[in-house]
Amino acid sequence: MKALIIGCGIGGPATAMALQRAGIEAEVFEVYPASAEGVGAFLNVASNGLDALRVLGAHRKVMAAGIPTPHMVMWSGTGKRLGEVANGLALEDGTVSHTILRSDLYRVVRDEAVSRGVPITYGKRLVDFEDTGDKVVARFEDGGEAVGDILIAADGVRSRIRHLLDPQAPEPRYSGLYSLGGIVHDAGFAGEPGVYNMIFGKRAFFGYTVTRTGDAWWFANLPRALGDVPADWKPVLLEAFADDAGSAAELIERGRADGGLPVHDLPPVPTWHRGRVVLTGDAAHATSPSAGQGASLAIEDGIVLARCLRDSAGHREAFERFEAERRGRVERVVAYSRTISNGKAAGPVARVFRDLALPFFLKKTASQESLAWMYRHHVAL
Ligand SMILES: Cc1cc2nc3c(=O)[nH]c(=O)nc-3n(C[C@H](O)[C@H](O)[C@H](O)COP(=O)(O)OP(=O)(O)OC[C@H]3O[C@@H](n4cnc5c(N)ncnc54)[C@H](O)[C@@H]3O)c2cc1C
Predict the structure, then answer these.
(1) Which residue of 144, 211, 294, 319 has the fewest CB atoms within a 10 Å radius of its CB?
(2) In whole angstroms, what is the distance from residue 155 CA to residue 104 CA?
(3) Mutation test of ligand 1: which of 155, 175, 290, 301 has the most ligand atoms closer than 8 Å to its C-beta?
(4) Residue pLDDT, tens place only, 326-345
(5) Are 8 and 110 in contact (CB under 8 A)?
């Protein structure tokens, strides 16, 4: 069996490595000249994602490129400590969630796949596919074609394949938040490395952590109308955090603010597969970033899909088993993350209730095991 994988983000190369381990040939096609890499942005690879990378033998390189971030401390905009929650649950060997530059994560996963002989072709935008019954043909914008036995969509939240598969598929829904972030080198902030400080500010949400070398990595979630993009985000951010206690304004002042991306997730997508084509990762179930799970889910998908393909009589049975195993879990994560995002985008009235409810919520989730379903999920190959 030969699999064509569309998209060389996080899930694409991880899926190719998983397929290789399952004895299935895979080729990856990516629209950009090299993998899409957002400068400055960073993301959380949760303990379950690292566990999945370990199944592929790729976790060490990812961890070496990131910083351990096992804890979160929540603050109100007035400077009140609301509580502490675990950012993931440590695995048996002590592995904890890591924060890593998006560009580093893309590079490490892609380079690992290449070193294992996975072919990746860049500059290939899939525009269409044809399922001929016994094969599937991927058609690219440059007029080229590729033929395989199955087509795996790892083409992200704006997936072209999702729409080709089902023109009625839901559109990504805007969370009400824009996301920005930056790194201040040698910030000299006092703070415990590995702890995320999360501030539910009066007008926006701010998170930062300090590294052992004294850098500060920060991100902001700003409630804003979709499309309302200023020429310069910095004054907008400074105004949003002007009345809050904590280091938000100072960190924003001292560096560049990258991103300015609207945050989306996907409502449940009814059709995950048809014929020889299957959706994975953000293409099937994009989650808002609040739970820090999107990349981890995409990697888990790749492993489960590879196992289902290896252990099934054919691709149809494999895709059904894949969906049966994955849908409940990923939709639960999307819903959980959406609840957190809604809290960040709260208006003035909802904010009052949020601030009253947060300490109780934090108490509940501070009990390690209440989030074990998310962080201790193990996928085997
Ligand atoms: C602001 C922000 C913060 C985030 N923070 C976190 C976090 O802390 N933790 C976390 O786990 N996740 C986070 N995420 C989510 C995470 O980035 C995604 O869930 C993850 O990248 C999904 O992987 P994927 O492989 O499915 O898609 P992607 O990584 O998006 O990759 C899709 C790839 O497909 C390519 N492509 C698209 N269309 C085509 C086409 N037609 N033909 C060929 N190639 C195509 C794209 O160029 C891209 O390289 C965040 C996302 C955002 C926006």
Answers:
(1) 144
(2) 19
(3) 155
(4) 999 999 999 999 988 887 77
(5) yes
The pair of three-digit structure tokens given for residue 166, joined into one six-digit string: 């089902």
Give the closest residue to 341 by CA, choosing from 171, 195, 204: 204
Quote the crossing angle between the two packed helices 11-21 and 47-55, to the nearest 10°.
Answer: 40
| CA of residue 49 to ligand 1 center, whole Å | 14
| C-beta 43 within 6 A of ligand 1 | yes
What tens digit of pLDDT does each residue of 68-127 get?
999 889 898 889 888 888 888 888 888 999 999 999 999 999 999 999 999 999 999 999
Within a 10 A sphere around the Cβ of 117, how many other Cβ atoms? 9
- Is residue 236 lining ligand 1, measured as CB closer than 6 Å? no
Gap between the Cα atoms of 151 and 272, Å rounded = 12
Residue 299, amino acid = I
Mind listing the domains of the chain with CATH numbers? 2-42+60-65+99-172+265-344 (3.50.50.60)
Tell me if 30 CB under 6 Å of ligand 1: yes
Q: What is the C-alpha to C-alpha distance for residues 111 and 105, in angstroms, rounded to an integer? A: 10
Residue of 4, 10, 301 with the most ligand 1 atoms within 8 Å of its CB, for mutation: 10
